[in-house]
Design goal:
Oligomer: homodimer
Radius of gyration of chain A: 22 Å
CATH architecture of the largest domain in chain A: 3-Layer(aba) Sandwich
Largest sheet of chain A: 7 strands, mixed
Distance between the termini of chain A: 60 Å
Largest interface: A-B, 102 and 102 residues
Structural class of chain A: alpha/beta
Strand order of the largest sheet of chain A: 2-10-9-8-7-3-4
Helix content of chain A: 40-55%
Number of strands of chain A: 15
CATH topology of the largest domain in chain A: Aspartate Aminotransferase, domain 2
Order of helices and strands of chain A: EHHEHEHEEEHEHEHEEHHEEHEEEH
Number of helices of chain A: 11
Amino acid sequence: MADSFSYDSLFSENSTDTPLNFVKHAKYDFAVAYPAPETLPMDGLIQALQTAVDSDGERIASEMAYYPHQFGAQELREYTVQKLQNDRGFTVDPDEVALTNGSGEALGLVIQALTNPGDVVLAEEFVYMGTLNQLRRFGADIRGVAIDEGGIVPEAMEKQIEELIANGEKPKYLYTIPEHQNPTGSTLSEERRKAILEIAHKYNMPILEDDCYVDLRYAGDVQPSFRALDDSGIVVYVASYSKLLAPGLRLGYFTGAPELMRRAMSFKLGSGPNQFASIAIEGFLKNNLDSHRGNFNPLLKEKCDAMTGALEEHFGGSGATWSTPEGGCYVWLTMPEGSDISAIRDAVFEQGVGYVAGTNFEADASGRIGHNSARLCFAYESPQKNREGIALLAQLFKQHGVM
Amino acid sequence: MADSFSYDSLFSENSTDTPLNFVKHAKYDFAVAYPAPETLPMDGLIQALQTAVDSDGERIASEMAYYPHQFGAQELREYTVQKLQNDRGFTVDPDEVALTNGSGEALGLVIQALTNPGDVVLAEEFVYMGTLNQLRRFGADIRGVAIDEGGIVPEAMEKQIEELIANGEKPKYLYTIPEHQNPTGSTLSEERRKAILEIAHKYNMPILEDDCYVDLRYAGDVQPSFRALDDSGIVVYVASYSKLLAPGLRLGYFTGAPELMRRAMSFKLGSGPNQFASIAIEGFLKNNLDSHRGNFNPLLKEKCDAMTGALEEHFGGSGATWSTPEGGCYVWLTMPEGSDISAIRDAVFEQGVGYVAGTNFEADASGRIGHNSARLCFAYESPQKNREGIALLAQLFKQHGVM
């Protein structure tokens, strides 16, 4: 029986033979999407677990043995409610918050609850490719909404909706990252959010709000979440502990109208999210949120300043522009119209600088935009490496004739 | 905007408004599917995390910050390979093992890779309802295979396959729990496994082997896994650390033919499994697997003996029969033909004894079998509570006129 069994004709029609992805790091890695590993509070998380076991071992043992609630650990849901109230200005019940395996799972569940193949879905014209991949997998026909340095332009979005409706393509919902957007770094103002909500109600179009960067602000003022501005149920709010603490904890969450949440949960594979990580997160953050953010965000700012300073030094006067984010992880670099930095991405990676080309974030995948832009993650490398890497990037761009 | 937003006509056709499940415990809870919470090695897991951080903090920080490999933490995959070699007698490469959010996720991914709506899938006529639910969700037309106290009867299965083929319903694959089966507690002999493999090859039918109870053996001899008996790729092997350590760690895994694994992974929502739990599990088990099993399994045996002893005392001579498992978590109780203990399940629960009625495990959901049977989990309650609960169950069965 050592012959190789053939799966010909046995795979499902929905399955695809997708090559596996392995993370490779360039010497200067601005392609990653992760915050500073040096701020990861592993000792604090471990201490929090130990404290929980020492103070309430029986509860911990029973929570680890089964899932009392399909939405995940009660204490972390209660903590999350408190955090949403303090940080995001809206109040929900712990039974209206579902913990998930990272926010990626939450997004995937909501997308499945709302998307029939062929449904038109709106998103920023450049937006997080992980969500784009999920939208595409479940058959969404994604259309990019025009953005400027302040995010979605409401008037342009309404005009586009009218045109889509005239064409028999009424959009089903809007996906947006309103705070420190991935990849552009922009934050939507309260005024624009209110205008977008009005449009959403007018066209009966839910808003899937991805607020996963909200904790990573080191400048300017946080804007109210869509969810805080509207409690009608039209907003589905998704967020995460991955960026604040560590992606390896795999803990995200979402809250929305009760029926929407039941529909979304009907797509869940397997049981609830990790109780072990939930206990550690709740125990750590309830005592250390402010001090952790107090360590974390100044470091982010230092890293961002190092990168934008180096951009000024090495790209100033070249016709390139870049965003100046107030938080998050990303600077959005735009080279002059006509330069193609997506085509040289692999070569530049081999020469030492990693970035993600703008084409990867193009919502409608039309190949129309993004060739002259790149997402640069400033959060992962040290300030020094940010400076060195940007200097090398300028040199390589010149060598490849795009600058 | 405080009016309630209506999702009418917005939900996807695939979504269902499924009521959420909350775990409720009867006084004597034989309905759960979890092993002994008193053996959960929380201190050991925490210690393992601390040791990893102290000895190799930089590696841990980078693993927590991103996912170097789509299949999950390298060290736990390497450990799993070693464990499979030692305990299950087959050798795979760490790059052929994917860690998942519990074995439930692994099963869901493989099911999606292999199932088109309407495909006929075989499974033991009574089998784990979690997998049945996933199979149904992805459109499988499940047919139950005849079992006896030794599990699947190969000759009966082959006859059934021939009949299905004659009827234009060739089965696509077989799902089975060969070791300490859920719910019946049976273990398939090596001879039967070999016969089933021969049938599987003859009919070009992969075997989805769910080996999640293999670590929980306290009597008799472990049987070779299907995967150890066949390395052609026809076997997809799924297992878990949930039963050995704790479900709340959410760590399962699977291994199979490379293309099958890529197809399965294409259905994954979000990033890899929990690195935090992976680090703890690997660190704990590499030093403590034998001592942990040495504590765990004698306690399981004591609990099982308490339950079967009480069954002998209170159900002996009533016409009831029950399995005598060599491991796992479950005793399968069968009342005389014609008794309906599924109808009184809720009433008995309210009166203090929880069990899962056999009808819930019926593979083809025809309502044909299972009314007179129940799964009793002996692993969760103490030996004393097992004895008391079975005594009460006999009393309640008499009261309800089924004994």
